[in-house]
Amino acid sequence: MNKILERAIAELARLSEEEQEAYGLQLLEELENERGWDERFAKSQDVLGAMAAQAREERAQGEVSPFDPSDRPDH
Fold first, then answer.
1. Could you tell me which residues belong to the region Disordered (predicted)?
2. In whole angstroms, what is the distance from residue 5 CA to residue 7 CA?
């Protein structure tokens, strides 16, 4: 365990049991959310790769137009 995590745990240990539980639940939820994002991102790589390949092919065939956001009429 690194020093920052040790320090955080030491600070948490000073809190009431109710506060410790609340922080513990929050931390576990955050860790679970991060794992979920990692899994979704890993699964999306094939789709993103296919989309990029399609975009490159469309550009090579001249099927796309240049886009400059500053050309939009609302700017």
1. 52-75
2. 5
Closest CA to 30 of 3, 8, 2: 8
Contact 20, 12 (CB under 8 A): yes
pLDDT digits (tens, 9 = 90+) for 12-30: 999 999 999 999 999 999 9
Placement of tokens 């979704």 in the chain: 40
Name the pTM for this structure: 0.51
pLDDT tens per residue across span 34-54: 888 888 877 788 888 888 999
- Structure-token pair, residue 1: 């365990």
- The answer for residues whose C-beta is within 8 angstroms of residue 69's C-beta and 6 or more apart is 75
